[in-house]
Amino acid sequence: MNIHHLLNDKRNERAYNTGEKSKIEEEKKEEPQETLIKVIQNLTQTPDLIEIFGETRTGKSTLSLCFFKSAEASGLKSLYIDTEQNIPYLSRPASYKLCLSLEKLQDVVYHLEDGYGFLVLDSIGMPVLGSFAKASLRERGNMLLAMQAMLYHLKDYADRNQCWVLLTNQPVSELAVMDIEDKWERKRALEERPPFGDKCSYFVKEILKSELLYSNPSESLIRLTAWGSRTYGRGTEILKMKIKFSKVIIVKKELCWEFSI
User: Fold this and answer.
1) Which tens digits make up the pLDDT trace of 200-231?
2) From CA 69, how far away is CA 240, in angstroms rounded?
3) Which of 169, 185, 215, 248 has the fewest CB within 10 Å, making it most exposed?
4) What DSSP character marks residue 228?
């Protein structure tokens, strides 16, 4: 028997003799598993903007909703801003705003009341992308500037209110790399496309990328990796998420969380 076993046996014997056994058991129960929202908070240490970008149907909204639920459960006043109707009506949280136009989104962002500890903006790019096709070059430039202005405002809000802000976004269009003649260079450029929004990434502290690993009729598996990070090298896995019908299982190393959506 080693010294650790001996000390444990002595402690248990003393606990039975003094009636402290239940106290020891309670101490074991009080070792809480790290909450999912801590994954976001630990990326930046101080409240700031964090972005998840990826192709459509790579789990960005589902993951954002899980972070939102974890934030609310931890006691943070939270708000979910949806610009794509990504969240089905019955799954929408009580603190939810739908903004399908750039003008409506600007109104909500610039009139946020103080006191939120966690915000989701899902997504920052779609209101602009929706108008891009019919806009002139001048109008497109103004839209991108509007995105940057909103991000700067949200960054200031995060600092003033000690609020983490989670954004979702899409990559730039595939058309941006279609003129590359070499097929291998073109393939690499497609895989490395940055988030949509020109210089908007300058305002974001941590940028993560969602990727679909596989999908079948019963389940999908998504991986979240670092893309532009001050904490991790590009490609470092942050977590994996399995979506199976209305159940979501998120795994980060030895930690595991389960949500219903």
Assistant:
1) 888 888 999 999 999 998 899 999 999 988 88
2) 17
3) 185
4) E
